[in-house]
Protein: Fe-S cluster assembly ATP-binding protein
Organism: Tessaracoccus oleiagri
Amino acid sequence: MSTLVITDLRANVLTEDGPKEILKGVNLTIKPGEIHAIMGPNGSGKSTLAYAIAGHPKYEITSGSVTLDGVELSELSVDERAKAGLYLAMQYPVEVPGVSVSNFLRTAKTALDGEAPKVRTWVKDVEKALANLQLDKSFAARSVNEGFSGGEKKRHEIAQLQLLNPKAAILDETDSGLDIDALKVVAEGVNQYAAAGDKAVALITHYTRILRYIEPTYVHVFVGGQIVESGGKELGEKLEAEGYEQYVSAIANA
Ligand code: ADP
Ligand code: MG
Ligand code: MG
């Protein structure tokens, strides 16, 4: 089972001018089999939420907690959080020059499982994940994210998601910069992962269009470092029509 519980989470981004509070008390519970869309305007702190949960060194949790199946993540290293079952697909995936996709995936899988995957099944699994994301076989030999198009970066993040098969996934703007065909492929890749039925998925996005292809269990509006409204997928439709303006001004006037 995979339950992600975020309680009163406050976090700072560490800037050159010192720490700056971005997350101002986030509460969210994602139960097994649920997909939660977290939607908000630029600069509202969505990526900060993702990075704080994943343990990025530029972000510090100042109070509150994040647990995955009862394990407190905030006290763990990045690697330990991944071992506990957390995966973050980053908004801006980083380049790893000189490391092939194939070696990168194998190293990640080995680190997570504590033993190397069996060569025969692993090669097939990699081919399948790449095919699912409509990436050519030759893609496995390329350096991670080096010279990848925006779409290839996102497809690779989701191929990785399928192979590592974590309990919980935070997908940060996995839809951004994709044309409609790539969006469908990436959405289908996420749906294939989530089809196991016991995953906790947070789908962070700026736009509602991905929700046409990935059906969220709940939709949350994220503004000013907080969830300000929650609802079903009809809330996504309302945002599509009305935008975030009313929520932004409500915060500004509070
Ligand atoms: P979102 O993902 O919703 O667009 P972010 O989490 O990226 O929002 O950013 C939240 C806020 O934190 C923004 O106001 C942004 O300017 C600020 N921020 C993020 N990183 C830094 C940084 N390194 N230095 C200063 N401010 C930062
Ligand atoms: Mg942004
Ligand atoms: Mg962001």
